[in-house]
Structures are given as C-alpha cells and as structure tokens.
Design a protein that fits this description.
With 393 residues, the protein is α/β, with parallel strands linked by helices. It has one domain: Alpha-Beta Barrel (TIM Barrel), CATH 3.20.20.80. The protein has twelve helices and 14 strands. Helix 10 links the parallel strand 11 and strand 12. 50% of the residues are buried.
C-alpha cells in the first residue's frame, strides 16, 4: 500500500473520474451498533467492487459509522475488528487500483441512537476530544496507504433543523475540520501529504459558499509543495425530484418538459426549480471559488430516486429522464473540474437509488451508468444521453 504515489491538484479530478458510493453498508447500524447487513444489503465484497470497477467507475466512497464501536470508557478506543473490516473493504478497492474515500458518517446524525458528533451539543469539549481520538486511530491504521485513499472529515453535520446555519454551531463544524486535519497530519507516514476532504454545514453548496460561516481549515502539517485539501459537498437539487417520496414530481429539466409536451404528462409533475441552469450555476460557483484556486471539489453524493411507476403509461420515459438528470449532473461536474460520486443505497425498485444488484453482482441501471461514465469521461453532460434515449423510447 505504501509507495511514492503523488497526485497533483491539477490532475486529481481526472484520475478520480466518476465515483460510486458503497452506501447503506458500513454506515448501517441497528440501535447504534454498526452492522453492514442490517439495512438489507449483503456484506461488501471484492466481487461487488469488481462489478463497479468493470462498469467504469474509478472512485468508491465508503461511508463508515463508528458509534458503539468506540469505547468511551477506554480512551475512545475504536474496536480493532471494525477497523480491520474497514481496511479489508478499502483493500478491495486497492486491488482494482481505485481511489477510495472513507469518513465518519452516521455518528453526526441526530436521528441515530448513539450519534455524538453534534455541533449543537453543549458538551463540545467531550465531542472534540473524542473526534480527535477516533481520527487519530483511523489515520494510524492507514498511515502506510498511498494517496489512492482519501479521508473525509464528516458527513452532513448540522443541527438537524433545516434552516439558516447558526453561527455558534457552524464554528464547531469549523473546529471539527481543523481537528481532523491537524490530527491526521500528526500521525506521519503518507498522512503528511494525503488528500483530505472537509465539509461545511450539512455538506450544502450554498451554506458552504454563501458566506454563512464556513472557514476552510489551515493545513500547516502538509509536506507537499501544494495544497492537499478537498472541499466536500453534496447535490440533491431539486430535492422534490431527487428524494422527496411524498410528492409526485417525477420529471426534471428540458427532458422533462419534452416528456410533458410529447406524452401529455401533467406539467405539475415536473420540478419547478433546480433545472439545468441552476446546476450549472452551482457548479460554476464551486469552480470559481475553489477549483480555480487550486482546491479540488468532490460532489460526494448525488442522484435521484426511481419513480418509474409514478405514471404507468410512460415508465420508460421517466427512467430516461432519470438517466438524463444523473448524466447532466455528472457531466456538468466534470466540465467544471469537480468529481461526482453517485449515491447508491443498494435498493432497486420504487424510490430506490441502486445501480447494481449487489447479490447478482450486475448492473440494474445500465442507462444511468452510461450517462454518468460518458458524461464524466467526455466532460459533457449530454455525452451519454443519446444512447439512453434510443434504448428508452
């Protein structure tokens, strides 16, 4: 795992290519105890990683929860078997020469029993001590791994309420990021120049870029001649199309309007915000504020749920629109030097986000995969659309 591999800021997005999340697996838990099968997915495997790599993805993000695997009464010691299992899954990715991202994922959720990385908690001294201790153990476990392994500080940390960020709580998030960077760098080995991803409030683009209090951490321990920090954000815009299950919004963008016009679909079923212009503007802002300043950006999660049964007379057109959205986001990200990583939760069917059958080890959504891979490869949001359209109509 060790060696002289160094990837520069100018080339990292190109090398990372299109990414895929091994979601609802190592971050899955029951009652605060991590268990990678408890949310219905099989255990992570080399065969599944092979299927993802064979499909053309070059990066895998592995969300990880720790929760009860941390012994608060023993210096915040992380369970050794859990660290070994994380390393085993990371090695699956190394065996295919993939980039791999690991993080502290569900520990920052208010909705999970045992969640502790809470920016609105009154006991910040305890949280920050624990956070530093956990990252120190992770960093030491992987200190000899080269730069194909990327650490991500946290996932969607905020106060659990969807409102404008609270300045006091945002400062705690900024502190977490600084503790993360300082702790990893202090462990030596390849960690002195490893790429590190840091995130703002709820990993939200606007709340990170819009002057709401995000402070990019300093990286004085970095031993490279250039920066080694990456900005982490997510994109599920517009949410009523991408993830809201209670609404009947199953069409998006220019392709959605085409379906309304040609298939007499109800125009109320098309998203009324967050169209192509919105996605372009968001990603151009990230390019201007970060990529152009030498700071890579990873869209650590994006995707839209399966709504094919929302209109029984046009399921193929709904699927076509879904592939169009995912390809547009991925291709527009690549155009702007950003790395897109699709959120796959392993579930196929109504409201699912799966691209693969994790038991049969084969793609279930080849059109979406083609749209994403082609969009990134060609840095063109439309690159994978024509073939998908031919298949879907």
């Amino acid at each position: 795992m060790s060696g002289g591999f160094i990837v520069s800021a100018a080339e990292i997005a190109g090398k990372m290519g299109a990414g895929w999340n091994y979601g609802n697996t190592l971050e899955a838990n029951f009652g605060g105890t991590p268990d990678e099968t408890v949310w219905g997915n099989p255990k992570a495997s080399q065969a599944m990683v092979d299927a993802v790599a064979d499909a053309g993805f070059r990066t895998i993000r592995i969300p990880v929860s720790f929760l009860s695997k941390i012994d608060d009464s023993n210096g915040f010691r992380v369970d050794r078997e859990w660290l070994d299992r994380i390393a085993e899954v990371v090695d699956y990715c190394y065996n295919r020469d993939l980039f791999v991202i690991i993080n502290i994922h569900g520990d920052g959720y208010h909705t999970i029993k045992g969640g502790w990385l809470l920016c609105d908690s009154t006991d910040q001294n305890y949280i920050k001590e624990k956070y530093g201790a956990v990252w120190r153990q992770i960093a030491l476990r992987f200190a000899d791994y080269d730069e194909h392994l990327i650490f991500e500080s946290m996932n969607e940390v905020f106060d659990g309420i969807y409102h404008t960020p609270v300045a006091e709580y945002y400062e705690n998030i900024n502190d977490y990021n600084q503790i993360f960077v300082d702790t990893v760098r202090s462990t030596g080995g390849n960690n002195t120049h490893r790429w590190l991803m840091t995130a703002g409030w709820n990993t939200d683009i606007n709340y990170t870029c819009g002057g709401y209090g995000f402070r990019f951490p300093e990286d004085s321990g970095n031993t490279c001649a250039e920066g080694r920090l990456i900005l982490s954000v997510h994109c599920y815009d517009p949410w009523d199309y991408c993830g809201e299950e209670k609404k009947t919004v199953f069409l998006w963008g220019e392709k959605g309007q085409e379906i309304v016009d040609l298939e007499s679909a109800d125009p109320c079923c098309k998203a009324d915000w967050g169209d192509e212009a919105h996605i372009r503007a968001q990603f151009e802002m990230l390019k201007r504020m970060y990529v152009d300043m030498g700071i890579p950006v990873v869209i650590g999660e994006f995707g839209c749920i399966d709504r094919a049964d929302s209109a029984p007379h046009i399921p193929e057109r709904i699927n076509e629109n879904r592939a169009y959205y995912d390809g547009f986001v991925a291709g527009t990200a690549a155009q702007n030097g950003l790395t897109p990583v699709y959120w796959d939760n392993g579930f196929n069917g109504k409201f699912g986000l799966g691209l693969f059958d994790r038991r049969a080890l084969k793609p279930t959504q080849p059109e979406i995969i083609e749209a994403i891979i082609s969009g990134v490869r060609n840095k063109d949001p439309m690159a994978g659309i024509s073939a998908c359209t031919r298949k879907c109509i």
